[in-house]
Amino acid sequence: MDPSRKRKLRLVVALSAAVLLGAALVYTSFSSATEASTPSDVLRSGEPGRSYELTGKVAKGSVEREGDELRFRVRDRDGTTSVPVEYAGVVPDPFREGREVIVSGGLDGGKFVAERDSLVTKCPSKFTKDKDGGGAER
Amino acid sequence: MAALGSACLIIGLMTALYAAGASLYGARSGRRQFVVSGRRAIYCLAGLLVVAMVVLETAFLRSDFSFALVAQGSSTDTPTFYKASAMWATQQGSLMLWVFLLSILSSAALFVTRHRHRDIAPYAAAVLAAVGAFFLFLMIAYENPFATLSPVPPEGAGLNPLLRHPAMMIHPPLLYTGYVGFSIPFAFAIGALITRRTDADWIRSTRRFALLAWTFLGTGILLGALWSYAELGWGGYWAWDPVENASLMPWLTGTAFLHSIMVQEKRGMLKLWNVSLIIATFVLALLGTFLVRSGILDSIHAFGASTLGTPFLIFIVVVIGGSTALVLSRRRELRSEARLDSLLSREAFFLLNNLVLVAICAVIFWGTFFPLISEAVTGTESSVGPPFFNAVTTPLAIALVLLAGIGPVLAWRRVTPAGLRRAALFPAAATLATLVALLAFTRARDSVPALVMFCLVAFVLAVVGQEFWRGTAARRIATGESRPRALGQLVLRNRRRYGGFLAHAGIALLFLGVAASSAFIDQRDVRLSPGGARGGDANTATYRGGTASLGGDDAGTGAAISLGAVLDVRKGEQRFVLRPSRNYYRTADPSKGPIGRFFEGEATSEVDLRWGLRRDLWTAIQPDVATLTKAVQRLDRDPRIANAGPAQQLRAIAALAEIYRRDPPPAQFRALVSPLVVWIWVGGAVVLMGALIALWPAPEARMRRVSSLHGARLGRELSGA
């Protein structure tokens, strides 16, 4: 094969490999992605037994501890609809009222029963105060 | 004083605009005096920003709450060390730090190149000045760090206790030096494109800045990981959080850049690739600085809420659009001077390594921005978590370590079979021996990716070891030096080469730690009552009792109370004590009672861990303060306490702490046994050492510079005579 054809072939092979890998990436990301549901989503369309990833802010004055169990309400990021959460396990350091959290679990009789150790808070690097009056970090 | 700071920013903005204009005009019209003036304006900008930094830093140290920034990020009870570094915990302060570092590094780069690159440097100066002007404009228009408060509040909000860790305080300046440092090669690349001087000249004079930026960025990332591991109560060092990803992406493209420029220097190839890489790196550094803070990653809809988002997005679009147009218009000049001779050559493997690095960067970019992509495509916001990132980056990381081993043994242009055999025989044998030993004596076979990684680490270490060994031996034959002296001379005379090898060995060690700790970590979350024990046959931990201290946490972070536990640990024959605890910081929220304030504020884990070369034992505790709640509420309602002075309130707190210490309720513990995790930090240190060796000016280069200056003077004198 003459060199220029060889180079062209190489380019075609490389490009198709890149396209294939890219397609694989798109496919895996969409299939492994978890849909984040807000409290109002969960309350509106929540079927018992289905697993959700609940995201929102910890409602003010709602955090209670009872032994091993942590109870709090998660409200919509910009709204007042909230759902009560029952959680057990490790609580991340930045967990506070008003902070944004993600917790997985399912609905059970109007309550969101969380999987053990599934509570995640968003990274503490956002040091600045909330501007929407959530008053999180005061 | 705030007025002085604001004035510095405004004059700084005008200076930067002047510097950009003068440099451009000087370069276009050929009037050197304008070029010189533009460069000096940048030195002047650095001076102004030093003054601004001093003003702001002084305000922090003096707890001058008339500065809004100080009131927001510091307080009188913040320890001095953290007062000094609280500036970059705020958005405005980090902007200030960014532009300050930019002015210093730009001045250094322009000073170093003042007698060279008469054509490229003015454009580079104009680009740097324009970037500086943009940041100054942001601060003046949107986020002024010198905003004042009236009336002056008596006390500040304090620095977020989570950030009170030494690593967290040097981490942002390191990271920012890294981000900012990449703007130097970027600016010179743009200069080279504009002037069509696309040979390797711009690379030679900015290579050191790129390497410096890369070193700072890498060290910063690693310190961030160390902070996460040793300070946060979850026990991991990397969570694939957008903030982390944003800093990793420019580091990856920067790594690719440092490799591929060697191909351009040696063979005049990959020109287009190199300018694209440095442009991408700079854009990713800009993204890393802001996009994470702009709130856009939370949701598309959060974008409007941030003040910085829009101007910043415009700036990025301008940078990308402008650079792309420039690159396209210069594509003729960016043609390669040579062709790839063989796929089995060092340059081909550099290209391959580049592709892998860029692929890692691309998948991380995809995953980081996935919430936006999915919200735009499907209408619902969904995200990919660590499992996605781990799955897609593991094969790429394995390929990367393999290439880190193969690359150095290959010759430029073309490898002969004999040369390959000579170079690869020992490393291949070492890899095979490692594989056999791992299968025979360890349970590494439980995780195939980890097993592969272990073997490749052995391969890289063998390659690097062999290079050092052969180089030393050759030198001994040539010079008859003693072995240590020959080794030292070898490294000193070929700093770039052997520094690079050392960096490869360090990266291999780092991946040893990553692979072992992610595949074989043993994590337990248990609830223990005092006297209770948990563990297997080899390791047990017994909850001996509670601890409580007031105002004196070990790390000196200014916590009012810390509650914890004493754990007696038995590990085989060894016995030792771990004391994890949790710090409680007072909140300024008046709705909490005078005593409740001490418990309702921010709380952070004080991890206790025992480092080991083989494994780390890591513990954290979450004490149950619910038993104290009743007593706290009773005290809060008591008018005597509310009216009492701080001393009496402290006495009440002390009594509560004593109750906890004597009779601690069951507590939640997290214990991790993480094998080989310490090698991540060791590997990082080795990379740093390699980078420093490569950065240090070589003696010959110094010599050359001196003799060329001498030659130039001689020439001038002769021509004058």
Describe it for me?
The complex is a heterodimer of chains A (about 140) and B (about 725). Chain A is an alpha+beta fold. In chain A, about 25% of the residues lie in helices and about 30% in strands. Chain A contains two helices and eight strands. The longest helix of chain A has 30 residues, at about 5-30. Chain A starts with a helix and ends in a 17-residue tail after the last strand. In chain A, about 25% of the residues are buried. Mean pLDDT of chain A is about 75; it is low at about 125-138. Chain B is an alpha+beta fold and about 725 residues long. Chain B contains 25 helices and eleven strands. In chain B, strands 3, 4, 5, 6, 7 and 8 form a six-stranded antiparallel β-sheet that branches. The model of chain B has no long low-confidence stretch (mean pLDDT about 85). The interface between A and B is large, with 39 and 56 residues.
Give a short overview.
The complex is a heterodimer of chains A (138) and B (721). Chain A is α+β, with helices and mostly antiparallel strands.
Main features:
heterodimer, A: 138 residues, alpha+beta, five-stranded mixed barrel, 2 helices, elongated, disordered C terminus, B: 721 residues, six-stranded antiparallel sheet, four-stranded antiparallel sheet, 11 strands
**Biggest beta sheet attributes of chain A:** 5 strands, mixed, barrel
Average pLDDT over all residues of chain A: 76
Extract low-pLDDT stretches of chain A: 124-138
Helix and strand content put the structural class of chain A at alpha+beta
Topology of chain A as a string of helices (H) and strands (E): HEHEEEEEEE
**What fraction, in percent, of the residue positions of chain B are helical?**
55-70%
Portion of residues in beta strands of chain B equals 5-15%
- Unreliable spans of chain B: none
Assembly of the depicted chains: heterodimer
Count of alpha and pi helical runs of chain A: 2
Residue-averaged pLDDT of chain B:
87
